[in-house]
Amino acid sequence: MSLDLATTRRIAKLARIGLEDAELETVRQKLDGILGWVDQLSEVDVEGVPPMVGTETEALRQRDDAVTDGNCRDAILSCAPEKSGPFYTVPKVVE
Amino acid sequence: MLTGLTLTEARAGLAARKFSARELAQAHLDAIGRLNTQLNAYITVLPEQDVLAAADAADARYASGAARLMDGLPVGVKDLFCTKGVKTTAASKMLANFVPPYESSVTARLLEAGSVFLGKTNLDEFAMGSANITSAFGSVLNPWKRQGDDAALVPGGSSGGSAAAVAAGLALAATGTDTGGSIRQPAAFCGIVGLKPTYGRCSRWGTIAFASSLDQAGPMTRSVADAGLMLEAMAGFDEKDSTSSNRPVPEFSKAAGKSVKGLRVGIPAEYRAPGMPEEIAKMWEQGIAWLREAGCEVVDVSLPHTKYGLATYYIIAPAECSSNLARYDGIRFGERQDASTLDGIYERTRAEGFGPEVRNRILMGTYVLSAGYYDAYYLKAQKVRTLIKRDFVQAFEQVDVLLTPTAPSAAFAQGENMDDPVQMYLNDIFTVPASMAGVPAMSVPVGLDSRGLPLGLQIIGRHFDEETVLSVGGALEAAAGFAHKPALHAEAGV
Q1: Of B158, B194, B203, whose CA–CA distance to B179 is shortest?
Q2: The domain containing residue B358 runs over which residues?
Q3: Does B359 touch chain A (CB under 8 A)?
Q4: Share of chain B above pLDDT 70, in %
Q5: How does it assemble (chain A) (predicted)?
């Protein structure tokens, strides 16, 4: 199947990457080429084959339900591009 | 010369007090000062007084007889590992000013073992690339040159800065990360050793994530014994990484010299790709002959799903990338582009913060995970991945290791292979299958091609059997006697 511009626009919106129309067409062409290439997988028979999740080298383990980390608010906030006191700041989202 | 030593030689020299860790560190800082402008191997060089202070602490431990595994050894750190208080960029504009308030588990272990960090090495943006040309801080130059040709060659990628630094004498060794070949392919292109351990062997905690089911940290060094030494320092269980293995860490530093007599070496038929350059095929044959002479039994094996490895990888890795990189939203850390709405901040920040290759991979991943396409692409790829892994598990019922070329070519020039992404992805054709299966694999330099560029062979082992990989690598290294140096080197013309 070939990738159209409307789908490319929808994907960019889902990924929250703001692209201009000219850039969208370049991206569409690149992705379409890659998708055409990965379509070779359609010839592989996977009937009855389970999907591989992770590399399954170790079983996931459980740990005690206990607080083991924290009390580092200022260190975490030090990375924020914009902040106000102990808060991240964003544009108003509620009317 | 201090910048030409292996880790093992430097460790012995320090222990015998032939030179101090301070002298060793200073020699490397001087080499970086002379060559880094050309090579662009480091994005950040640590302040001289910090490097020398770490070296002095190591010297004090040698003096008191309390030296640790990596004590006083100057190494580079791929700029994908978070280092506390030291800028960590992932070679992206998005993280151009990011200073982590914490240390990654792997670098914490290396520091605990006494390593002296020199700086943060360049890479492809977010480790996505095979030529180190997508870095927001400029391309890395391969220190090797073709004979009679001054063309700028790529060091491979994504750990291209680490590979160039180790090859050119700007670090005794460096950390890399490997998602589909990012340690092994640049190691081959730069004539050094690169080991991708078993998935789960080294903690992923604090390493900036690309594709979480594939990412694995490993050593990039000048010898196989060094790779064992450094892996021993890097590996180990970490409760902060849910996929970290709690198996004991063997003494990898002692694995390289072990006899390989009687080991069974598999030669996978499917790696004889049509169009493989004759020189690569010849080098592979030579490697087979060397291992046979060392007492190994050579066995033909089949990994029937090899040809689907790359296509599977280019669905699974972008899918995981799109999920992992969703965190770069301009709110909590990293760069931010202002806009009047929250969505506007996200969209502008991500459009301007990510380079084209990273954007394309996020979009590809978003597509294969989106409603209507998930089953056809992502689920399908996960099933093919099961088949690829089964190929390896079945092959390892017959043999102890596999031997293949590391890459389908020697280093190519900047500007070649650039237009068609699929052409660039083909670089990883021999490295991706082992990543998909999670098995350990190492590239060892074994010779030069007719234009004077290094070629590597890859040894792939069973899950958690890095020791056998190191032993076979040691045998290959001993037989090959690779002692060539690149055109640009700290010891050239000094």
Answers
A1: B158
A2: 307-382
A3: yes
A4: 100
A5: Heterotrimer of A, B and C subunits.
